[in-house]
Specification:
Length: about 450
């Protein structure tokens, strides 16, 4: 491949070493990216009211849907570029990069418009507490203007990872995360801007991350030159990206919508339960980071090996990924079982929130284990471009299982947060069971 930047060849070398070298920067980048919302919530909890905590909690649930939509689509680029890298087809790699960046420019504009236009309706559907409604609207509306930067960074990161480079996306997000932390304390603690300050800090940091990435890659003569004439969609590539990326994005959206429904139910109980589910969501992200990072890394590894016809190597990467991810998820599960109050108190000192959160944390933490199985197995399947199957699987789990169970339990046990917390792991274990069967039965259909 041309250019000064060289990606890692994921089809050669010791499997464990390749997985670790490629996945660790992926994990570090995801940890840093997750700090955006966590730092926002931490700073708001430190200097602002329970209503502000609930506002950021609910607001980040909305913005996470947007992020899931974008990362789902960009993972299609990772997989397609990885496949072309495995085939050693540089021309199609360039065309895929140009198509990806062009498409995501327009996607960002559409998302911004939809968020701003339907903001009140979205927050009403979420049953946002009246005490925090205006603050939540303020947070989401400011973040909406940052969609271009969210799309830009995630598209560039996905391109580099498909290219076999997971280190530079980590470095770009490290700079942005450090800036976000500084701005959070500056805007909230020093300037007293509250919820608006946290949202503004996030948008500025994301803009910096995207700008730094583009400038660096241009100076290093990346395989894509970022010239205006190169930003044009290729019809054939666009169709392939849609076939791979849209199902991933749809499944991510379905899962997020089901969790937003849970948020709406918790919001309807009290402002304290709303804060609990928001804090729990932060730990969900961190506890599952190893799974999401390894799953996406595994998708890139599988894509390159699929392009080379080396599926035996991809299968061995799958089992190693499962082992590593389950070890990390188990640590968070043990913490939640042994001392859930210490987890909650990181974000708030309000005794009512802590008391309400203990049973919920103990029960929902089983999902750390269950969803790890689902993510890793789906990463392997996605790498083989069988994204329609994972879309059907995840949509079934989210829409046909999780939402009805939340409704039933909320009607019969509205004040039992422990039972409500058990819904997510129950659904995830069911999904893990039939997904594992699909993978085991699919060996005969794989190449290699």
């Amino acid at each position: 491949m041309a250019g000064n930047l060289k990606g890692l060849d994921l089809t050669e070398g010791p499997i464990a070493r390749t997985l670790i070298v490629f996945a660790l920067p992926y994990l570090a980048a995801n940890i840093l990216q997750s700090l955006y919302g966590a730092v926002d919530l931490f700073v708001v909890g430190l200097y602002c009211s329970a209503e502000s905590v609930a506002a950021v909690s609910t607001g980040t649930q909305v913005t996470q849907i947007v992020t899931s939509l974008i990362t789902g689509l960009t993972l299609g680029s990772t997989i397609l570029i990885g496949s072309y890298m495995g085939e050693r087809d540089e021309e199609r790699v360039k065309r895929t990069i140009g198509t990806t960046l062009t498409i995501f420019f327009f996607v960002s504009l559409i998302i911004t418009f939809l968020l701003l236009f339907f903001l009140s309706d979205i927050l009403t559907l979420l049953r946002t507490p009246s005490e925090s409604f205006a603050l939540t609207a303020q947070y989401v509306s400011i973040c909406a203007y940052g969609c271009l930067f969210i799309c830009g960074y995630n598209a560039i990161a996905a391109i580099l990872r498909g290219y076999g480079d997971s280190k530079r996306p980590m470095l770009f997000i490290l700079i942005a995360c450090a800036l976000n932390i500084v701005l959070d304390f500056l805007f909230v603690a020093a300037f007293g801007m509250g919820v608006a300050g946290t949202a503004l800090a996030t948008v500025i940091s994301q803009a910096a991350s995207m700008a730094i990435a583009v400038i660096y890659l241009k100076r290093k003569h990346f395989v894509f030159d970022f010239r205006p004439g190169s930003f044009k969609p290729d019809r054939e590539i666009a169709i392939r990206l849609a076939k791979i990326g849209v199902p991933i994005s749809f499944q991510e959206m379905a899962v997020r919508i089901s969790f937003l429904y849970l948020t709406a139910v918790m919001n309807g109980i009290s402002v304290y339960s709303a804060a609990v589910v928001g804090i729990s969501a932060k730990y969900d992200v961190f506890a599952m980071l190893s799974a999401t990072s390894l799953a996406n890394a595994l998708a890139a590894i599988t894509a390159q090996n699929y392009g080379r016809g080396s599926m035996a190597r991809a299968r061995r990467s799958l089992w190693l990924s499962l082992l590593f991810a389950l070890c990390v998820a188990s640590l968070f599960w043990i913490w939640a079982q042994a001392a859930p109050s210490t987890m909650i108190s990181v974000f708030t000192s309000d005794p009512a929130v802590i008391e309400a959160g203990i049973p919920f944390f103990r029960s929902c933490s089983y999902d750390y284990i269950a969803v790890t199985l689902v993510f890793i197995l789906n990463g392997y399947i996605n790498g083989m471009q069988k994204t329609v199957w994972t879309m059907i699987s995840c949509t079934f789990g989210a829409i046909a299982l999780r939402i009805p169970l939340v409704y039933i339990f909320s009607q019969h046990f509205p004040d039992d947060l422990g039972r409500l917390g058990m819904i997510a792991p129950t659904v995830s274990f069911i999904m893990a069971f039939y997904t594992l069967i699909y993978v085991l039965k699919g060996k005969r259909r794989e190449r290699g």
